Amino acid sequence: MNLSLYQKLAWSLVVIFCFICALVYGWSKQLEQTSQHHGEQNLHLQLAEHLVQDNPLIKQGIYDYKALENLFHTLMLLGPAFEFYFVDPQGKILTYSAEPGKVKRSHINLTPLKRLITDPTITPLYGDDPRDNNKQKIFSVAPVYNQDSLQGYLYVIIGGEAYDTTLNNIKANDSLWLAVLWLAAALLFLFVAMLVLFRFFTAPIKKLAAGVSLIEAANYSLTDSKLSAYSNKNNEVDNLGRGIQAMLTRIDEQFKALEQSDKQRRELLTHLSHDLRTPLASLQGFLEVLNQPHRQLSTQERQHYLDVSSDNCQQLKQLIEQIFELANLENGQVKIHPETLNLGELIYDCVAKFCLTADHKEINLSVEPAICDFTVVADIAKLERVLSNLIDNAIRHTPRGGKIIVHVQDVGSEQLYVDVSDTGVGINQDELTAIFEPHYQASNSNKAGRQQGGLGLAICKGLLQLMNSEINVQSELGKGTQFRFNLPQKIKA
C-alpha cells in the first residue's frame, strides 16, 4: 500500500502519540500504586504489633482459635479495610474471619514476613493474599510468643477485599471523567501538533508553488524569475524543486533554440530567395533577348547569350542540389557506407577535376607528399564531395598566381590528417566559428563565389560528422586559410 507524505505523517503522529500516552499512563498508574502502597504500609506498619500487645488473648499465646476468630471478626467490623490471619511458624493459616470459601490458600510464604520484621524500612513489601492464589498485597505482621516460644504470626492484609471492592466502585464512577479528560487532552495535543508539523512540512511546498507561479506569470522565462536553491538531496520537496528547475531550464533552452532556429530559417529563406532570384533573373533576361524576333543578333552574340543562360541553369541546378543535400543532412536521411580506399588516388582524382580551373587562374595546385600511398576507411562518395568542396572553395578565394596544397599527415595514432591550405585572402578571426553555418559569407569573401550560396562548408561539416570526423580551420588575413580534418587509417597487416 503506497501512502502519501500526508498519510505517513498523520499515521506516524497517531501511533507515536498513542504509544506515548499508553506509556505515560501505565507509568503514572504504577507510580501512583507504588506510592500509595508505600504510604499505607508505613502508616499501618505497627498495626499487628499493637494488636498483639493490646489483646491478652493474643499476647499470652493462642490456643482458643474460635475465640480468636471472633476477635478477628470484631476487628474487621471496626476496620473493614483490613483482613486478619493467624499463621503458625511454618506458614499454615490457623484461623481467620471470613465467609466460607473466601480463603483460597492454606499456607503463605513467610519470607516477606520475616524480612519486614527484620527491616521495617524496605517498604513497600508484598506478601501472599490468602484470598487469591495469584495476588500479593501489602501487609503488617507481628510475631506471637508464649514464654519465649514462637507460637506464630499475626498477619494483617492492608486494603483487603472489601477495601478493593469499595475503591474500585469509586474509581469506576471517576473513570469516565478521567477518560474524557484524557481524550480531550489527547485530541488537543494531536490537533496542535498536526498543525505545527503540517505547517513545517508544507512550507517548502508553498514556497515552491509560489516560485512556479512567478515563472508562469513571466511566461516561463527564466531571465528574471528563478526557483530558490534546493540542496537537500534527502528531502522530497527539494528533489521536486530541483526536478522542476531542471525541467524549466530545459524548456527555456529549447525555447531559445527554437527562436534561434526560426531566425536561422528566416535568414536561410532570405538567402535562398536571393540566390535563386539572381540566376533566374539573368536567365530570364537573356532568354527574352533571344526570343525577340525583331532583334537581329549575330552568331557570336547568340552563342554568348546561350552560354550565359546555360551557366545560369547549371548554377541553379547546383544550388538546388546543395539545398536538398543540406536538408537531407539536417534530417538525418544521409547514410554512410564506409569502405577501405586509397586516399592518394582519391585526392589526385579530385585535383585533376580542378586542374584546368587552377591553370586558368595561374594557381599552383599540388599534393604533398607526392607519393601519397595511404589507406583509410571512409565513404568514397562523401569524402570526394568534401575534398571537392574544399578545393573549389580554395580556388575561388585564392588570387591569380597563388598556391593551393592538399597535404596528408600521418601522426602515428591510427589517424590521418588532411589539410587543404591556400594563399588566399584569409578570414577574420571573429568569423571563423560562423563560416560553417548555411549561407554565411565572410565579409572579405570573393564575391565571384557567391554563386555557391554559402552551403559548401556547411555540407562538408555535416558529411565529416557522419564519418566521425571533425573539421577545423585556421586563417590569417592576407596570408591564406587552412582547413583540416581527420580520417581513420587502415593499418596494413
From TrEMBL:
Q: Which residues cross the membrane?
A: 9-27, 176-198
The catalysed reaction is:
ATP + protein L-histidine = ADP + protein N-phospho-L-histidine
EC id: 2.7.13.3
Q: Which UniProt keywords apply?
A: Kinase, Membrane, Phosphoprotein, Transferase, Transmembrane, Transmembrane helix, Two-component regulatory system
Q: Which GO terms describe its molecular function?
A: phosphorelay sensor kinase activity
**What is the protein name for this chain?**
histidine kinase
Q: Which residue intervals define the domain Histidine kinase in the entry? A: 271-491
What is one term from the GO cellular component aspect held by the record? plasma membrane
Which cellular compartments is it found in? Membrane
Main location per the UniProt record: membrane
The HAMP domain covers 199-256
Give the organism the record lists.
Answer: Pseudoalteromonas porphyrae
